[in-house]
Design a protein that fits this description.
Blueprint (H helix, E strand, L loop, with lengths): L4 H4 L10 H11 L3 H23 L6 H14 L10 H22 L19 H6 L1 H13 L2 H12 L4 H8 L3 H21 L1
Helix pairs in contact: 2-3, 3-4, 3-5, 4-5, 5-8, 8-10, 9-10
């Protein structure tokens, strides 16, 4: 694939990027308004769905976070190296924005009451499998929406984003033990509300 001299001279655009992505990035960096509109129109729905699926039940925050993703992309477009498709690059930015949101919420000084019940060994709901099943999706969203925000975010971060308690503790400034207690309470509340739903 040959790059036009203009593309080759555009920072952030390398020969390894898919041709349509290279052309779009080069046009945006030249301040082409149509290219910018095409960029947003092409990727907005997918980024919106990704962010929404990870913020449920806090869907009221989705629009703001999606805007943050596109703003961050716009500000760092010159750093786009073209080693991956734009779609993957944007989803990476979205993933970081969602994790930043999780981290900020779990860092906030919400009281962590001591668990007065032990987590039952019979907790048999495999959250990873359940979240992937379409028929359980509505029930899961309802149960998560009924939990305190820190509990639902902790479960989403742990099971949807597959983060360990150690990673969550390191990123929130809490101890591993505090994160484990939070997850234990959140799982217990989820299980109880699941049975009642």
């Amino acid at each position: 694939m040959d790059l036009s001299p203009q593309d080759a001279a555009t920072p952030g655009v390398q020969a390894g990027a898919p041709a349509p992505d290279r052309e779009l990035v080069a046009a945006i960096l030249r301040k082409d308004r149509k290219a910018t509109a095409e960029f947003v129109a092409t990727y907005a729905d997918e980024i919106y769905l990704y962010v929404r699926s990870r913020l449920i039940p806090r869907v009221d925050l989705v629009d703001d976070l999606v805007q943050e993703v596109f703003l961050a992309a716009w500000e760092s477009l010159t750093a786009y190296r073209g080693e991956a498709p734009l779609r993957s690059w944007l989803l990476g930015i979205a993933r970081h924005k969602v994790e930043n949101y999780y981290r900020a919420c779990l860092r906030s000084p919400a009281p962590l009451e001591e668990a007065d019940q032990t987590v039952r060994a019979s907790f048999n709901i495999n959250i990873d499998e359940t979240l992937d099943r379409e028929r359980f999706e509505e029930k899961i969203h309802n149960v998560l929406a009924g939990l305190p925000e820190t509990h639902s975010l902790a479960l989403l971060w742990r099971y949807w984003e597959k983060r360990s308690a150690q990673e969550m503790a390191a990123q929130t400034g809490k101890t591993v033990k505090a994160i484990e207690r939070l997850l234990a309470r959140a799982r217990e509340m989820f299980r109880e509300r699941w049975k009642d739903e």
